[in-house]
UniProtKB/TrEMBL annotation, chains A, B:
Keyword Transport: no
NCBIfam families membership: thiL
PurM-like N-terminal domain boundaries: 24-136
Name the record gives this protein: Thiamine-monophosphate kinase
Binding residue positions for Mg(2+) 2: 42, 70
Amino acid sequence: MGEFDVIERHFRPLAGDAALDLSDDCALLTPPPEQVIAISTDTMVENVHFLPDDPVGTLGRKLLRCNLSDLAAMGATPLGYTLNLTLPRDRSFSEAWFTAFCGGLAEDQKHYGIPLLGGDTTSINGPLVLNATIYGGVHPHLALRRNGARPGDDVWVTGTIGDATLGLLALQGKITDPDGALSARYHLPLPRVHLPLGGIASAAMDISDGLVQDCAHIARASGVMLRINADLVPISPAAAALGPTYLKRRLSGGDDYELLLCVPAEHSDALQQICAVHNIPITRIGTAHNGQGVHIHDATGQTITFEKAGWQHF
Amino acid sequence: MGEFDVIERHFRPLAGDAALDLSDDCALLTPPPEQVIAISTDTMVENVHFLPDDPVGTLGRKLLRCNLSDLAAMGATPLGYTLNLTLPRDRSFSEAWFTAFCGGLAEDQKHYGIPLLGGDTTSINGPLVLNATIYGGVHPHLALRRNGARPGDDVWVTGTIGDATLGLLALQGKITDPDGALSARYHLPLPRVHLPLGGIASAAMDISDGLVQDCAHIARASGVMLRINADLVPISPAAAALGPTYLKRRLSGGDDYELLLCVPAEHSDALQQICAVHNIPITRIGTAHNGQGVHIHDATGQTITFEKAGWQHF
C-alpha cells in the first residue's frame, strides 16, 4: 500500500468537482456569485490536540468541525476543504485505519456539505499531524467580525461552556464521566454553522481558546470591556453533576467551539428567534461597556480572577 | 515571548488586507472578477523536506516557492497564502529565529506579490512542521491541466533538471558543490510563475516528485505515452561537472520545481517567444504518443530503466 494507492482508493472518493479528481496541481474553486471566500486553517497534533487512543473515526471529524466553527463565527457558508496528512514513519497505517479515518470524513462531509478539494500526504519522524483549511462563501456586508461590539451590547453564547475541557480531564482519568457526555464534546464539537446572524450580531467569534481569553479577544478588537456573570454561563447536566469545583476550568478551558456573540439589545428577539428555528440554545451572559479587558463576576458581584485565562501554545 | 506576542510582532506585519489584521476567525479573500480560485497546499517536515541546519531565512521561502510552483503549473496568478507553523516544544525559538524566518517570508511576499492571509501556530513533541496553502486566480478556460496532452505533442521542460536532488547530496557531504549552485537550488527553488501559457500548452504540471514520475502523472491523466530523450534533458554546468554518474538520480530526484509542459507543435514558436520574454530557458525533451506510461531512452535509442521512478512518502 503506497502513498498514491492510498490517495486513489481512500481520498479520491471524497473529492468534489473542484478537486479535479485530485490529479492536478491545484484545486479550482468557483466562488459563489457576489461572495468573498472565507478561509480558516487549523493544525491538530497528536498529544496536543488529540490523544493517541482517540477513536480514529473522530480525528478527521474533529478537524473539520474546528474549522467549520471558524466559518460559523464569520457567518460563512461552507464550500469545501483541503487536507494535509502527516503520518509517523515508525508506525504502519493499516487499511482499517484509512477506512476509519476517511469514513469519519465522509460522514461529516455529507452532514455539512463540504467536499474534499485537495491536499497532501507526507511523513514525519514524530507524531501524527493533521491540518485542514476550510473555505466558505459570505456576502462581504454580512461577514461577522470581532471588532463591531459597542458599549451596551449584550454578550451571548450558544450551547454550554466547558464540557470539552472537562471531557479531556475525563479521558485523562481525572474526573468521572458516567455517560461519556463530556468526552463526546472533546472528541466531536458541534460547530454552529448556517446561523444567519449577519446584521444581527455586532461581533462574533468561536470559543476555542477558552471563554475568558476569547472574550478578551473581542474586547480588544472592539475596544470595549466585557462584563461576564459567571453564574449565567450555561452549564451542561454532566458538568453540573461535578459540582462547583471546576468553574474556573470551565470558563478558561478550550475546545468549546460554541459561538460568542455581541448583540445590540434591539436585536435580542431576532437572535433568539433565529436560534430557536435552528434548535440552538443561546444564553445571555453579560454586557459590553466602555473600557477594556474582561471582568468576570459571580451573581453577588464578586470578581473572579484567573491566573491563566486560556491556552497559548508557547 | 508568548504565542500572541509572536503573532503580533512578527506575523501581523506580513498580513494583507484580506487577513483582517489576523484578528478574526477567517480571512476574507475577494476573488478577481470572472476568475476561479486555484488552491494548492504543501507540508514541509524537518528531516524530510528540509534539514535542521538549513538557513532559517530559506525555510519559509522554500515553502512558499513550492506552493507557487503549483500555481505556475495551473497558469494561476498568486493572490496570497495561509501559514501553519508547528514548533517543537523541546526547543526554544528565539527572537532572532522569528526575525530570520519572517524576513525570508517578507522577501518572497514582496517578490511574488503574495500577502499573508492567516494561519495558525501550534506546538509538537517532534520536529518542526511548516504548512502553507496558497491561493491564485485564473480564468477557468485558461487553467492548465494535466489531462490535455495529445499524441504528437512535444514535451518541454523549463530550466535545468536534477540540481535540487544533487544539492541534497551535496548538503549530505556525498558530492562536491564548489560554488554552492546545487545546494542553492535545494534551498530555494525558482517557481515559474506568471508565464501566460493558457491556450498554448495542452498539459502542464510542476516537477516536484522527479521528472520520470511526473511524466508518468501526465501520461496517465492524459491517456498518452511520453517518450523522453534523456540526452536532451537540460543539465546545469554544476551538474554537468559531476559527469554522467548521476543521470538516473537527476531524472528521478525531486524538488526541481520546473514546469513540465506538453505543447502542440504549432504552438512551439509561441511557447519559445513567451519564455524568451520572461527570460526562462525552455527545452524540448520528447514527444507524446498513443499508448501509456513513460519511455526514457538515450540519444542512441537505448532504453533507460529506473528501479525507483520518484518519491513516495509511504
